[in-house]
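Ticket 4471: requesting a sanity check on a complex prediction with riboflavin. Repro inputs:
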Amino acid sequence: MSRVKILSTAGILGALSVLLMFLEFPIFPFANFLKFDPSALLIIASLFLFDWKTAMFSLITKDLVFYFVKSGDLIGVSMDFVAIFTFISILTIFKLNINKYMKYVIASFGVGIVMVLMNMAIIPIYFKMSFSEAANYFGLTSWTLIVTIIAFNMIKFVLNGILGDLLYKRIKNFFS
Ligand code: RBF
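Returned structure tokens:
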């Protein structure tokens, strides 16, 4: 497939994933700034169909378009970007020959750890209170907020990984 075709397909996948971002909803009502949406599945399909660089192109398209079309929330979109970037990067460098679903679970846990650190840095800026004050504000302790962030990211990425893989299997012949 030519580079031009690959990049236009990647752009289309990114633009389509913006539509899926509109389906976002909080998994845990008490931490409603963490919103699940199925858009990462198209970025993951882009990774499986092509490569890391092409998937990054789809991801940048998705978050740029979503920022301008819907959210205007630079921090929220950036957090989604970092989480998906981490997931596809771990899947790319992960070379152990294990069951693919185990890979999704391990990569999602990695995303969970990275996003706990990101949330510790960003929550004080976003909510203008310390991490532990924000946890109390949501009716949680710092530890239960950490567990919530890990659980959220694991649910988001295991589901998107499975759906992205299913879509990839359905459309791969079309692109070969
Ligand atoms: N998205 C994730 O995938 N994982 C996160 O850990 C995460 N943390 C966020 C923390 C804050 C303070 C905000 C504002 C957003 C966060 N997001 C995260 C993105 C959020 O779930 C949603 O996709 C965006 O806000 C776009 O609506």
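Notes from triage: The first strand starts at residue 25 and ends at 26. Leaving this open until the requester confirms.
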